[in-house]
Every structure is written in C-alpha cells, then in structure tokens.
Design a protein that fits this description.
Blueprint (H helix, E strand, L loop, with lengths): L18 H30 L8 H38 L5 H37 L2 H38 L8 H15 L3 E5 L5 E6 L11 H8 L4 E7 L2 E11 L5 E11 L1 H22 L1 H50 L12 H37 L3 E6 L4 E4 L1 H7 L3 H4 L4 H4 L2 H16 L5 E7 L6 E11 L5 E10 L1 H41 L5 H32 L7 E3 L1 H15 L4 E5 L7 E3 L1 H22 L4 E9 L4 E8 L6 H6 L15 H11 L3 E6 L5 E8 L9 H9 L1
Parallel strand pairs: 12-14
Antiparallel strand pairs: 1-2, 1-5, 3-4, 4-5, 6-7, 6-10, 8-9, 9-10, 11-13, 14-15, 15-17, 16-17
Helix pairs in contact: 1-2, 1-8, 2-3, 2-8, 3-8, 4-7, 14-15, 16-17, 17-19
Length: 753
C-alpha cells in the first residue's frame, strides 16, 4: 500500500512509491516464487523417477547430476534474494527506521515456526533413506542375484554340453556307417532328420570337406535359423570345437560345431547342431543378468547416490527455511508498510502538508485505519484553510490600515509588526522578530515607549495612551500610541498590543483651523481702522501741505507717504488673512493638467529669465478633476517657493516639473523639483503650517494656502530632498472620471515611477 493520488472532493495526491521500485519488488516476488516452484518440481521428479529404467544407469546419473546442479543454482538465487532482504532488514534496524523491529520479530517468528519442523523432517527422511539404502544393498540380495545369474549361466552351459554330445554322437555314427559317401546322400538326409528328432535339436547340418552343406534338418518350430559364419567354419575345420550363443528374434540359439574325422585323423567334414532356448527362458535370463549388472554398478555408486538424495533433502529443507524467511519478510513488509505510511503521514501533517493522503488498503482492518487517517487529515486541512483565510484576512487588514500595530507576546518578545508600524518606527520585522522589546526600544524616545509597555503590563485592565514624535524618516511623525493588554477567554494576559496612529496631519489641520480663526479675527479687527487712518492721512496732506515751509513740507510729505504705504502693506496682509480664512469652495471639472502646468510655468519663465524651467509632460495623462483657477494659484505658490530657494543659493538654478500617469494606482503624479538650498527635517515637518516661513519677508501663508487647495482636490502633497541638492514636491491626484486607460507605455512609465 502506498500513498498515491486520490480523486474526489477533499482529496489530495501524495507521492507514491517510485515506479521502478514497485516494478523491482513485483519482479523479485515473481522470481522467488518461480525459482521455488521449479526447485520443488525438479526435486519431486528426481525423487519420483525410476532409477532402474531402460535409459541406463549412466544416463540416470547424468540427469541426477544436472538436476542437483540446477537445484543448487536455484537455491543460490533464492539465498541471494533472501540474504539481500535480510541485510536490508538488519541495516534498517541499525539505523532505527520505523517498523524495522516489528519486521524483524515477524521474520524471526516465521523462521522459528519453520525451522524446527523442517529440521525434524530432514532428520526423519534421512533416517528412512539410510534404512532403505541398507535394505537395498544387503549381502543376501547380492547373493540371490549372483545365484540367479549362476543358474542362468549353468542352463546355457548345460544346453551347450548337450549340443556337443549330440554333435559328437552324430559325427561318430555317420562316419561309422559310411554315410559320407556321395552315393548315400539321400540316406544321410533321412538319417540326419531322425537324429535331430532323436536328440530334440532345432537344427542339424553336415558340411563336407569343401565346407559345403551336404544336408540340413530344421525343426518346423525353428525355421529360418541363421547360417553358420565363415569364422566358425574355419575354427571347426582346423580341428577345434566351436560353440556360440546369439539372439534369434526374442529367443536365444546355442550353436555348436565339431569336426568329423576319419580313422587316420583327417577332418572329413563338420557337424553343426543348434539348440533354441525358449523365449520366456531367454527373457528371464537376460533380466537376471541386467539386474545383476545394474546392482553391481549401483553398489559401486551407492555412496554418491545416497549423498545425492541427502543433498536433495537438504536443498528442500533449505528451500522451506528460506521460503519461510522470504515469506516472513514479505508479510512483515505488507503489515508494516501501512504503519510506516501512517507514521510518514503524521510527520507530513506535522510539517504542515495538510493535503497528504494514503491510498486505501485492501486489508479491511488496515483500510479502516487508513480511512480514519484520511478523514482526519481532510478535517485538519479544512480547519487549516479556514485558519489561513482568517489569518490572511487579519494580515491584509493590518497591512492596509493606516495605524501601526506591534504585538508583544507574554515573554516580552516582539511577535508581529505591520507595514505601517515599520514605516513609523523605522523598523524591519525580520530584524526584530523574536527579540525582547527592551532590546529594540532603546534610546531616550524609545525608553518612553518601553515605559509605556511596562505601565500597561502593571495595569492590564485599562489602556494607556501617549503622544510621541518619531523622526525616523525625512519628516518627523507625531503619533498617538495606545497600549493594550491581550487577554484570552479566561482573562489571562497573553501579551501587549501597541497601536500607533499618525496624528501629524490631524494636528496640522487643527493648527490650520486655529490659525484660520486667528486670521479671521485679525482681519476683522485690523481692517476696520485702516480706512480711517488712510483717509485721515490724506486729509492732513491736503489741508496742511500748502501752509508749511519747504523743510517742514518735505518731512510732512515723507511721513504721510510712509503712513499710506504701511497702510497699503497692512491691507495686503489683511487680504492674505482673508483669503486664508475664507478659501472659496472649488468646482472640480475634468481638465488637462499638462496645460495648467504649462500656463503657470510661462509666467515664471518671463518673470525669472535667469532660471531654467524644464517641463516633462506625460502625453498619456488622462483628464483630472480640478479647479483651474485655484490649482493654478497653488502651483504659483509652490513655484514661487522653488524660485526663492534657487535665489537663496545665489546661482542660476533649475526648476524641473514632471507629470506622470500611474495606471496601477489610478493616480496622476505631479513633481516639482528645484536645485535650491533645500530644507531640514524640521522645516519639512512644519512647511505647510500657517505663518511658518524661513524668508524674512514671507507671510507663511503661501504653502499653507497651496496645501489647503490641494486638500480640496483630495490630492496628497509631500516634500523630499532632491538629490544632490534642492527640494522635490510630489503631488498625487486621484483619477475618478478618466474615460481613458493608459497604454502599455504609460503603465510602464507608471511602474518605473
């Protein structure tokens, strides 16, 4: 059973066994089973076949030798495969691989259950084999076989002796009767047939001196007996007797020959006599002879044959033992594999791989366990997905809120920081994660933050707030810090949560409103007496100018001129106050920002020819909802500040204006950069506050008015350093009614910005 892809809802695939590994195991199983089967069949055939068959003892021994060698090869193959698995099992046990101990116990149990019966069976079979061999090769058996062979030989010798006596009698009587004369041939033929019948012979034949057959008498039951060979004739005519036994069909023929001599000893002829041994007797004699010969050979090969049978039994015993070992290893693997996969599944779940599944097993009990595991992992995966979605929602919420959030766990270590807090505090979460807040919040300002954490820990049932200013970027940031203790469902403290709210803009708006109220009251209080003062000065000049001397008149006119001039200056200041206090409401209409910027720049190019004004418009800029007049007034104030900054350096400066379409954020960006004197961080923090100016004759209202106008356009203005020198104002306008979409080129420009 292996982890494999699943189908159906809630199922995920897991990595199965490699295809090569599965093929190797299947091939190994078939190889072991085939080797064992062939081994058993060959051993059975070797034991069951008849060792005394007609194929001959030598061929039987060769077959036995081949079978034993084949069995040895198969046994070696089986030993190799089993040894390989045993070595692998020992290696796994030494390395402490899960399931190796259980597999070892199962293998030992299978081998133990098989070893004792196999050895007992081997010993009993060896005993029976010993008894059988002793009974086969007893001396009585050998004596009986020798006696049988002796009787058979005596029978044939008796037949030969009888034939010799008959042949001699025929030779003497025929010579004595003078039957060898040519004139007595017919008498000799009849006499020969009578003698054949008298002696009970199968054939009687007489040869003359020229070795020609004179007469031949054959019994009717023995027709077609073979003729006498020339070799036999030469032996007899040389004066010797001749005897031979040869096969005739399924019977045996005993043929003898004797010479016929005259009185002077000269060979006159030859007498041939044949005696037929009956078929039944011949078969019996041959069987006895063959059995005795085989017995003699078996007696010589007794120990090798006995050893071959014992070896066969030993091989069968080893096959049983090694087959049990392999079967134990196989069963142990089948039992422990699901457990191993369950253990692997728990490890994968512990690592966070919630999609891990196990293929259902065929075994019913294990299948229930596997199904329970898969159901558990499905529920865990579902729960984990819900937790991940909830965590992602919270993380997205924290990442997109303007307030900074820092969480500190119960041990005092920082556990999370959202991007807003990173920007406000100038920290990076990977650098402070897991560190104690006392080690992170160091220095005078940070010490106040650490005190805030300690205070809320001492009073966990109430929130603690402090207003702090952090100068971590180009501009200081004023934040309202709220510390709150995190509690679980039982009210136990689990840490501290710090909330950082950027109130810089809020304080700026509050100061702006306060200054507007001041400007409104000052304009009201100052404007009323200005006109009477100016009119009174003009009346004095008209009434008294003609009655004064020349010197007095000069002084008088100078005083009147100063009074009127200063009244005009105060009126201008009052007008600025009035405009700041009562900014008209803007009327937003779609317009081309490039055209408005170009109109404002044309005025400054004419008024300040010593400066270089560059404009880089974006041709793909969509229409922007703006109030042309008020926005132009704001641009004039910002450009006037840039011109003053360049004049403060005393060199010919440059003012660069750029528009850019940021399609990804649906924003039009306007940048105004100068090469002037630049600003400090403190100046940048208060730059847009009313009545704050670094110029001697400045009212401090120009940039404040520009900021208010841009706020009416819902635009966002920031100021940065313009490297290597000067300042850079960045204004972002939201695009709502743009009926066009930026081209790919515009998107690329926006992305590069």
């Amino acid at each position: 059973m292996s982890a494999s892809p699943q189908t159906g809802e809630g199922q995920r695939p897991t990595v199965p066994l490699p295809l090569d590994e599965r093929r190797r195991r299947r091939r190994e199983s078939w190889l072991i089973a085939a080797a064992a089967a062939v081994f058993v069949l060959l051993s059975w055939w070797e034991i069951a076949r008849d060792p005394s068959g007609n194929t001959g003892l030598l061929s039987n021994n060769v077959v036995s030798f081949l079978l034993i060698n084949v069995n040895l090869l198969l046994l070696i193959l089986l030993i190799f495969l089993v040894t390989r698995n045993v070595v692998k099992l020992v290696w796994e046990r030494r390395r402490g691989i899960f399931g190796s101990r259980l597999r070892t116990r199962l293998v030992v149990a299978f081998v133990g259950l098989t070893l004792a019966p196999s050895i007992l069976l081997f010993l009993v079979a060896q005993g029976f084999l010993q008894v059988a061999f002793e009974s086969w090769f007893q001396s009585r058996v050998e004596s009986a076989l020798q006696g049988s062979v002796g009787i058979a030989q005596s029978y044939y010798q008796f037949a030969a002796n009888t034939a010799f006596r008959s042949a001699r009698q025929i030779a003497r009587q025929s010579e004595a009767l003078g039957l060898w004369e040519p004139s007595k041939i017919e008498e000799l033929r009849g006499w020969t047939e009578a003698k054949r019948q008298e002696y009970g012979l199968a054939s009687v034949e007489l040869w003359d001196q020229a070795r020609r057959s004179l007469v031949r008498a054959d019994a009717p039951e023995a027709p077609g007996l073979p003729s006498v060979s020339a070799e036999a004739g030469r032996t007899v005519f040389s004066g010797n007797n001749f005897a031979e036994t040869h096969r005739w069909g399924r019977a045996d023929v005993v043929r003898v020959g004797v010479p016929v001599r005259r009185g002077d000893g000269q060979v006159l002829g030859a007498v041939w006599v044949a005696f037929v041994v009956p078929r039944s007797v011949a078969d019996t004699v041959r069987a006895i002879a063959r059995s005795y010969e085989e017995y003699r050979q078996l007696n010589v090969m007794r120990q090798p044959i006995k050893n071959s049978y014992i070896l066969t039994l030993a091989l069968l015993t080893l096959v049983l033992i090694f087959s049990a070992t392999w079967f134990g290893i196989r069963q142990a693997r089948n039992i422990t594999r699901p457990l191993l996969q369950l253990a692997e599944g728990t490890r994968e779940i512990a690592k966070g791989n919630w999609s891990y599944r196990i293929e259902p097993a065929t075994d019913e009990e294990v299948a229930v366990l596997v199904e329970s595991f898969n159901q558990m992992t499905s529920e865990l995966e579902k729960t984990n997905l819900e937790l991940v979605e909830r965590r992602n929602y919270v993380e997205n919420l924290l990442a997109n809120i303007a307030a900074g959030v820092v969480s500190i766990d119960s041990t005092g270590c920082i556990s999370s920081i959202n991007p807003a807090a990173e920007r406000m505090l100038g920290l990076k979460f990977p650098q402070v994660q897991g560190r104690r807040f006392e080690d992170v919040f160091t220095g005078p300002l940070w010490a106040h933050l650490a005190e805030l954490v300690q205070e809320v820990q001492e009073q966990p049932h109430r929130d603690v707030q402090r207003q702090m200013k952090f100068a971590t970027g180009e501009t200081p940031v004023t934040t309202l810090v709220t510390a709150r203790v995190l509690q679980d469902g039982r009210g136990a403290a689990k840490g501290v949560m710090l909330f950082f709210e950027d109130v810089t803009h809020l304080l700026r708006v509050q100061r702006m409103e306060a200054w507007r109220e001041v400007a409104r009251r000052l304009a009201h209080e100052i404007k009323n007496p200005l006109t009477p003062i100016q009119l009174s000065a003009q009346r004095l000049h008209k009434r008294l100018a003609g009655s004064l001397t020349q010197d007095d008149r000069t002084v008088f006119e100078e005083c009147i001129r100063v009074i009127v001039q200063q009244v005009e200056e105060v009126k201008r200041l009052v007008s600025e106050f009035s405009r700041f206090a009562r900014l008209p409401s803007v009327r937003l209409e779609p317009a081309d920002l490039n055209i408005i910027v170009e109109e404002a720049l044309s005025l400054f190019r004419q008024a300040h020819p010593q400066l270089l004004f560059e404009f880089a418009p974006d041709p793909l800029l969509p229409p922007v909802d703006i109030d042309r007049d008020s926005l132009k007034r704001a641009l004039v104030n910002i450009l006037d500040n840039a011109v003053a900054a360049c004049a403060a350096v005393g060199e010919s400066g440059k003012v660069t204006v750029t528009t850019l379409w940021l399609a990804e954020w649906q924003t039009v960006r306007l940048e105004i950069a100068d090469t002037g004197c630049g600003m400090t961080a403190e100046v940048k923090a208060r730059l847009f506050e009313p009545y704050f100016s670094t110029k001697k004759d400045g009212t401090g209202l120009g940039l404040a008015i520009a900021s208010s106008i841009l706020a009416e356009h819902q635009a966002y203005i920031r100021v940065f350093d313009n490297l290597p020198r000067g300042s850079r104002f960045v204004i972002d306008f939201p695009v709502r009614s743009a009926g066009m979409s930026a081209s790919p080129g515009a998107r690329a420009q926006g992305a590069s910005a």
